[in-house]
Amino acid sequence: MKIFYASIILMVFVFLGACQSEQKVPLNPNGDSELAILMREMFEEGMNMKEAIAKGEHPKVKLKFKDILTADATEPDKAASDVYKAYAQSYISIMEGFENGASNPEELYESMVSNCESCHKALCPGPLVRIKKLKV
Ligand code: HEC
């Protein structure tokens, strides 16, 4: 019986995953996925970019953003989907725009945030609350 309860608890934890909730402690018993860690860095980078733009500076890109296509995800099926790949590709193009010294950093920043939101609305709604903080 103990094992039965333990496996129910484990299943609930696995089901919650990174997409369903805002968590400080990793819920995934195997630790955070590469993609979850990359996403947190994307968020931090986004906050730095927002600050730079507010000061009228050109945002600097430090992140290895192309990893969005290769990082292991908590739910690999999601990251393998066409929807995921399409939004990931837009994110890469936008970040390349910044790297190449885009002349319209504000607009590009806004399209970056709406791209975060679109992919999350489609695949992973939990972090949308946090993503709102990136809005200008
Ligand atoms: C191509 C789709 C896609 C795009 C674009 C995207 N995300 Fe995500 N995001 C995901 C998926 C899928 C996960 C779940 C990752 C996992 O658990 O493996 C995730 C997870 C997260 C998390 C939770 C990480 C954690 O602590 O578990 C945050 C925060 C996040 N994304 C922020 C962002 C921000 C900010 C952007 C834009 C700069 C962004 N995302 C763009 C798909 C996307």
Question: Would you mind describing this structure in some detail?
Answer:
The structure is a single chain. By secondary structure, the protein is mostly helical. It has one domain (31-134). α2 (34-54) packs antiparallel against α5 (105-123). The longest helix is centred in the N-terminal third of the chain and has 21 residues, at 34-54. It has 6 helices and no strands. Bound molecules: heme C. Residues 18-19, 33, 35-36, 39-40, 42-43, 46, 73-74, 78-79, 84, 87-88, 91, 112, 115-116, 119-120, 123-124, 127, 130-131, 134 line the site of heme C.
List keywords for this structure.
136 residues, mainly alpha, 6 helices, elongated
Overview in brief:
The chain is an all-alpha fold. It contains 6 helices and no strands.
The count of domains is 1
Taking the alpha carbons of the first and last residues, their distance comes to 53 Å
Number of extended strands: 0
Q: What small-molecule ligands were found?
A: heme C
Q: Strand portion, in percent?
A: under 5%
Rg is 17 Å
Q: What is the chain-wise order of helices and strands?
A: HHHHHH
On the 0 to 100 scale, the average pLDDT is 88
Q: What count of helical segments does DSSP give?
A: 6
Q: Determine the fraction of residues in helical runs and give it as a percent range.
A: 55-70%
Largest sheet: none
Which oligomerization state do the chains in this entry correspond to?
A: single chain
Shape, per Cα inertia axes: elongated
